[in-house]
Amino acid sequence: MTATPQPSTLDLVADVVVVGGGPAGTWAALTAARAGADVLLLDKGYCGTSGPTASGGTGVWYVQPDPAARDKAMASREALGGHLQDRRWMARVLDQTYENMNRLEAEARYPFPVVDGRPHKRGLQGPEYMRRMRSWIKRAGVRILDHSPVTELLVDGAGTVAGVRGHRRQHDMDYRVRAGAVVLATGGCAFLSKALGCDVDTGDGALYAAEAGAELSGMEFSNSYAIAPAFTSVTKTAYYGFATFFHGDGTPLAGAGSQGGRSVIARELLDSGVVLCQIDQADAETQRLMRTGQPNFFLTFDRLGIDPFTEKFPVTLLLEGTVRGTGGIRITGDDCATTVPGLYAAGDAATRELVCGGFTGGGSHNSAWAMSSGTFAGGGAAAFAAALGAGAHRRRLSGTGGAGIRPAGSGAGGAGRAEALDVLRRQVHPYDKNYLRHGDRLRPALADLDAVWAGLRAGAAPAGGDLPRLRQAAAMVAHARWMYTSALARTESRGMARRQEFPGLDPAQFHRLAVGGLDRLWVRPEPVTGREVRELAVAS
Amino acid sequence: MIEIVSSSRCVTCDVCIAVCPTDVFDRGPGGLPVIARQGDCQTCFMCEAHCPADALFVAPLTHPAPEGSPLRDERHVTESGLLGSYRREIGWGRGRKPGARQAVGPELGRARITPAS
Description:
Chain A folds into 3 domains: 9-222 and 325-399, FAD/NAD(P)-binding domain, CATH 3.50.50; 228-320, Alpha-Beta Complex (Flavocytochrome C3, Chain A, domain 1), CATH 3.90.700; 417-504, Fumarate reductase/succinate dehydrogenase flavoprotein-like, C-terminal domain (Methane Monooxygenase Hydroxylase, Chain G, domain 1, Up-down Bundle). In chain A, α1 (23-34) links the parallel β1 and β2. Helices cover 37% and strands 17% of the residues of chain A. By secondary structure, chain A is α+β, with helices and mostly antiparallel strands. In chain A, strands 1, 2, 7, 8, 9, 10, 17 and 18 form an 8-stranded mixed beta sheet that branches. Chain A is globular. Chain A has helices at residues 23-34, 51-55, 67-75, 87-106, 126-139, 204-211, 262-271, 284-293, 297-304, 321-324, 353-356, 364-388, 417-427, 431-435, 439-458, 466-489, 531-539; strands at 9-19, 39-42, 58-59, 114-115, 118-119, 123-124, 143-145, 150-155, 161-168, 173-184, 216-217, 224-229, 244-246, 276-278, 313-320, 328-329, 343-345, 398-399, 512-516, 522-526. Chain B has 117 residues and is of the alpha+beta class. Chain B has one domain (2-96): 2-Layer Sandwich (Alpha-Beta Plaits), CATH 3.30.70.20. Chain B is 18% helix and 11% strand. Chain B contains 4 helices and 4 strands. The N and C termini of chain B lie far apart (37 Å). The interface between A and B is large, with 72 and 46 residues.
């Protein structure tokens, strides 16, 4: 160690802390501030550019409040999701999304396109949406700290979440916040795959929640991979619905497709390493609309000098894990409460099974969930903080962080970030491990992940800017262990969680899977909620 | 990945240092941003979108562009119109109309499955 002085610690107080400044976090912050809470939003990057929405853009599950249209919208993906959705939650999310999109136009003055004389609210352009969310929450009085990754949650003597600790990486300064309640809106986990905007999504919130005692759910729905031109980042799988795929020699790759044929692409990439693609099914008008709809789709092609409509180009599949999977922190109340008092979860950090079941929540459903669950969680956190009263900031706090913060044992046999990233590269990214799943390959992969987790638990605690980086590595390893533990427990194929040796749906496994634990993991079936609502709807 | 910071265009406003979600830039001599951690760049193009001077260029590759690549050549990306093209397309900058106002994509029907021949 060099003799540099210890960085000073910044001490802050807030009624509500929101961790993460993407769509869910900004809606949570806005709602809590409007409810009268003093809100501090902490982003590990920059609120306004962090995460896949800001750099991508998204469709939105915006459906007019017409009972027939709403019913159709709710029914559309139920079978795909393995019937694990909850109709009551779907209805709430459709209501809240409708309201929020209208507020975006009226209050944030988002420039929606006008089609047939009416604002067209079925999508949001990422940079514009998140730029407006940032200025909107600032106007509402929310304080924002950018480049300030949280490193752990703080709890009071009763185990109630009462603050966070973190590091301001552009000021080389640690910070601590005493808070009445905390909302985790840290996104899903894409394992640093460089899928568009996803490298900030390392599953941090799930680790912190689990360390404070929260549970996860749906972690077997975590094998999402997106199509991108090889060696590039722009994942926009929907547009590949207009594509034809080919072997390296230019002959058609039969059965390949962006939906319902992506595993064929994965298999060919495993076998030969090359899949070519040409977006040859888009007519001139469609081509024009693709460019106005999503200009960033063409950044890659324009800059590499490729015409994707007339030329074949190589593609790859990038891991999107639980960003487009549906697993996350388990929700136990309408206000997006978790099993831990004072802790709320929203957006991709939370399970999206309630609205998506076990099928990829990518695009419209995820964005609707983000803005709705953010609103619910922000309101819940503000109410929780208000009910604590004046004693909220006089509680005695202790840290909950394990791996990388409080080493277990003697420190011998410790592992660091590099070892963790290496295991993740070998055991989570490969298509034959996480995508085309089989127990014979999942079990040894999980054993390897367990071993590196033990190493991380034993390893030394770094200081300053190295701590958040190590914590992110630990979060990814923990995430992968919950994923594979749940995947092994589901001995059937439901939603996106498919097992090669169990290709069929097993009616006896019609349940969700809760999972948790850190050093020793557990998994438990949970009954599917909201069935009674659907049965009533079907009967009427 | 981020490849070019144009010292002649940069107005040393520090916006890229602030907005980069993966903290790739440091403030260098004379206030010019330097690419300090290129390996952390996630190729999201957000710095380009927010740069008010079109002084940044992100190559679309998730690895560094090779030595001699035109994607590292400021003159090439300027003359070909690629520099500043993302900001232009999303309609950011004085006198431009927000691209969001135009952003209506095609109807996405059932995805095509590649036939056998």
